[in-house]
Amino acid sequence: MPASYAHRHGLRALGAGIGLRRDFYEALPRTERALDWVEIIPENFLTLGGRTQRALDACRERWSVLPHGVGLNIGGPDALDEDYVSRLSALVRRVDAPFFSDHLCYSRLGGVHLHDLLPLPFTEAAVEHVVPRVREVMARVGRPFLLENPSYYAKMPGGTLAEADFLRHVVEQADCGLLLDVNNVYVNAMNHGYDARAFVDALPLERVVQIHLAGHEVRPDVLIDTHGASVCDEVWALYRYTIARTGAVSTLIEWDQDIPSLDAVLDEADRARGVLREELRR
Ligand SMILES: [Fe+2]
Fold first, then answer.
1. What is the mean pLDDT of residues 111-140?
2. pTM (2 d.p.)
3. How much distance in Å is there from the Cα of 69 to the middle of ligand 1?
4. Ligand 1 center from residue 253 Cα (angstroms)
5. How much distance in Å is there from the Cα of 90 to the middle of ligand 1?
6. Which of 157, 179, 239, 264 has the most crowded CB, counting CB atoms within 10 A?
7. What is the CATH number of the domain that holds 146?
């Protein structure tokens, strides 16, 4: 395997983290339970003040804080939003994040925010569109950047590449990292009828710097990536499979809907930390 992206950029594995959500602004910075790092959705922290700023600053005093965006629109046809990238860059520096991330998708069209992370066609033309945009964002922000594999419910027409090859071409040509959402792999594999482990094997695993774990909703005909439940057993098994191949990488429990108690989310992080420790012992 070539030298990993994390190694080349001096990024160490941070352990198990959770997201700083509004419900946890007061309790999280004071928790006495184990926690290794915190992820924030930068769109919620671009304008700071009041309890938002207090929560962010208090977390930053204790942990690494990593911005994981939803608004970069790296794959859409619109020009990159200069104002957004400037404010994102300022936030990355403010929290001194070792890296930051967003999704390999599009989320804006003709200046309209779509409030969804929509899939790109798996084509060389899409690769050629995204790669210079990723390079521009990395140059503007000046920190390592990861793209996440999104969940999707319909394939964009015209695809000529396998999904794993599309991901590989983008991250290798842009020379960025991969945020591998293991729940998204599982949900996509079930919804589109492919083998999740074979998909993981086909990825450029030396570029995985972070992993997401989340819960989904099971409907009779489709799995919905809700981030609103515990991580299911099948996703834990796929996580173990992945970690055995990538080694221990920073892992986040994503919970964005029907958010339970802080303790319940930290329980999930404890379980991920246990898997990471097993891998380190191995
Ligand atoms: Fe994710």
1. 93
2. 0.96
3. 10
4. 9
5. 23
6. 179
7. 3.20.20.150
